[in-house]
Amino acid sequence: MRLSRFGRLGMALAVSVAMGLGMTSCGGRTIGYMWVLGTQASGEANQTAGTIVGFKIDNFTGNLTSSVNSPYSSSGTNPVSIAIRPGGRYVYVVNQGVPADVSDTKNCAGSVAGSISVYAVGGDGTLTFQSNATSQGCNPVWATVDSTGNFLYVLDSRSPAYGTTVTNADGSTSLDLNGDVTVFSIAADTGRLSLVTNTAVKNPTTGTQLTYFEVGPRPVMMRNSTGCLFTVDQGDGTIFPYQVNSSNGQLTLTTNSRVQVSGNPNLTSISISNSNLYLTDAANNLILPYTVGGSCSLNTLTGGSVANLGLTANPVYSFADSTGTFLYVLNQSGTNSNNANSTISAFKIDSSTQKLSPVVGDTLNPYSVGSGPTCMVEDPTNQYLYTSNNAAGTVTGKLINKQTGQLSDLSRGSSFPAATHATCLGVSGNVQ
What is the pLDDT of residues 288-328, one digit of tens each? Predict the structure, then answer.
């Protein structure tokens, strides 16, 4: 059949509009961008080169396709954490470096320095390196941007005072083995970072303001919400709370300087949803729910700790969905010797009591993912869930049933090749 001139023009216009919207017959428009951190072996002993694999997320299917020029260099060694400024214009990648031996108590001796790499994001999700910044302590492990987008908080394994002798309140002395938070202000026009000093505490030797905010020993993760910043400290099984000043980025110690978690836990992650806070305890395979009170206090939720689902083990990450209705817990292993899969445990959060109960309605919960998962995110439209899998070097995608909380495989395949030894991942909506 021959088309008239106007018919041909109409068809051409329809194709042009579809292309402009990023639509094809195989999928839909791009609804956001994903960046997956990972490593590959370098020429030097015990060191790895950092990479960032970029993806575009398809609206209709959740399918991932590579961004232009991906992969990108992380511009540092061992990237482990990613933070994204609201609006998606700037991305911050934490390169941990190589930590010193745990028996070494001399500041940063034996470490390969870490760094924070700053990237500008193009309209198609491409990353352009801007600069590197250095945190004040050793071997940074996590970063988060405050809700205003004006400050970046970086968690360091060891504070600058690490290994020094301190005098305790009772007159005894001990070694300072704490970590710290380094605070940076973010330039709105370039995304670049400037150090924010601690106006409340001075260095007793020099009399100058400290350049960091000390937390507990061996911190591994932190979250900020509703004017509070909480760090998870594995060294002593505590949560260290700070109040956040949104106008200048300052952190202020609360009246509850540390929250001790009982039961000899191995605290591996922290997540916050509304006024609820959730910890994962890998030693006891538990989820520990708290409510956040005034002055960043934590109160154990009625009913206390919640057992993870049967046959799961080593929970390492959790997050609540955008509605605060479901909690998902990422498990690196299981107890079934015949099928020790990595999985996601799905729980429903009761809207009245906030208690957790397993999501029901199918026999698949917990849901299988790629081996050795480390991080988990929800896409910008809250349709899909993704995990980064360290041992598999992949990303696993799942479709979220927003009514039941159940997870299912994506329609066009749920496993996507990513970085070798993938660590964490981050997601942003289309750049604003």
Answer: 999 999 899 999 998 889 999 999 999 999 999 999 999 99
Q: Which of 283, 312, 302 is nearest to 356 (CA)?
A: 302
User: Band of the pLDDT at 3, cuts 50, 70, 90?
Assistant: very low
Give the integer Cα–Cα distance in Å for 411 and 406: 15
Given a cut of 90, is residue 141 above it in pLDDT? yes
Contact criterion met (CB below 8 Å) for 15 and 7: no
SS (HEC) of 212-255: CEEEEECEEEEEEECCEEEEEECCCCEEEEEEECCCCCCEEECC
Task: Please tell me whether residue 19 adopts helix, strand or coil conformation.
Answer: helix
- CA quadruple 394, 279, 335, 343: dihedral positive or negative? negative
CB neighbours (10 Å) of residue 364? Answer: 15
Inter-residue contact 264 to 237 (CB < 8 Å)? yes
For residue 181, give the H/E element and its range.
strand 178-186
Q: Are 80 and 35 in contact (CB under 8 A)?
A: no
Q: 140 near 116, Cβ under 8 Å?
A: yes
Distance CA(371)–CA(394), nearest Å, equals 9
pTM above 0.85, yes or no: yes
**pLDDT category of residue 76 using cuts at 50, 70 and 90:** very high
Give the separation between CA 373 and CA 295, rounded to whole angstroms.
Answer: 34
Beta-carbon count within 10 A of 20 CB: 9
Q: How far is CA 400 from the centre of its chain?
A: 20
Question: Is the bond leading into 417 cis (omega within 30 degrees of zero)?
Answer: no
From 186, 65, 30, select the one nearest 120 (Cα to Cα). 186
Length of the chain: 432
Higher model confidence: residue 229 or residue 225? 229
Q: Are 220 and 281 in contact (CB under 8 A)?
A: no
What are 99-136's pLDDT values in tens digits? 888 778 777 877 888 999 999 999 899 999 999 999 99
